[in-house]
Automatic annotation (TrEMBL):
One of its GO terms (biological process) is regulation of DNA-templated transcription. Keywords: DNA-binding, Transcription, Transcription regulation. SMART domains: HTH_LUXR. Residues 167-232 form the HTH luxR-type domain. It comes from Pseudomonas eucalypticola. GO terms for molecular function: DNA binding. It comes from the Bacteria. SUPFAM superfamilies: C-terminal effector domain of the bipartite response regulators, Pheromone-binding domain of LuxR-like quorum-sensing transcription factors. This is Autoinducer binding domain-containing protein. CDD domains: LuxR_C_like.
Length: 240
């Protein structure tokens, strides 16, 4: 078991500001020998999990991950949806997604471990500790998994309410068409697939997506879907 200085742990438990919590957590994971932290809270209402993520991963990789829609094929997410067991990143884990593995490594996201927590309310969070070089050995994995699990639980308890509040901030209602489109995106459909379902052109679908992103005050369509579903905007939507 890896031990952190008691002063650092007490500081993390006292903090309430989201940014200070994340900075403190990054300091702790660097003490464990990792470069990056990603903490993600999933929208549990969606059959295909959509995550609101925080951390210090390279911005270019974060943008690339979203652009390529890697969440749909990421074996780390697939594991964490079903299991509480910590997971070590290996070539075998990414055997079916070598493109994801190579792309991540090219951005310095090469080696790590991940784990998840699922609370009594059905809310799921996932924590990944990542570094640029040096694979995580078996001995290191078993030595550090316990501390990582503790940190994941603390971040889940300290940050999940920040995420929920952020998703509920907008008061602007989406149009029926915008909600329909976000519904299908939440179901894991692409813009092209959504266009076929709703008998629209893909250009029209993308127009409505842009409008929904603007109305919800989010940065991209993924975050707009998270916001709409968590705020109950998609409840009772007639999908077509």
């Amino acid at each position: 078991m890896t031990h952190w200085p008691e002063q650092q742990l007490c500081e993390l438990l006292r903090l309430t500001d989201e940014n200070r919590i994340l900075r403190s957590a990054v300091t702790l994971i660097r003490d464990l020998g990792f470069d990056y932290l990603q903490f993600s809270t999933a929208l549990s209402a969606c059959p295909h999990p959509i995550f609101m993520s925080k951390g210090n991963l390279p911005p270019r990789w974060t943008a690339r991950y979203h652009d390529m829609d890697y969440a749909r094929v990421d074996p780390v997410i697939a594991h964490c949806r079903e299991s509480l067991a910590p997971l070590r990143w290996t070539d075998e884990l990414f055997a079916d997604t070598p493109g994801l593995r190579q792309d991540a490594s090219a951005h310095g996201v090469s080696h790590g471990l991940s784990l998840a927590v699922h609370d009594a309310h059905g809310q799921m969070s996932m924590l990944s500790l990542v570094r640029r070089t040096l694979p995580v050995s078996d001995d290191e994995f078993y030595a550090k998994a316990g501390a990582s699990l503790w940190l994941c639980n603390v971040l889940h308890e300290r940050l999940k309410n920040h995420v929920i509040q952020a998703l509920a901030m907008t008061s602007t209602e989406l149009s029926v068409r915008e909600r329909q489109i976000l519904h299908w995106l939440a179901e894991g459909k692409t813009a092209g697939e959504t266009a076929m379902i709703l008998n629209l052109s893909e250009r029209t679908v993308n127009f409505h997506i842009t409008s929904a992103v603007r109305k919800t005050g989010q940065k991209n369509k993924t975050l707009a879907v998270v916001h709409a579903a968590k705020a109950g905007i998609l409840d009772g939507v007639m999908p077509a």
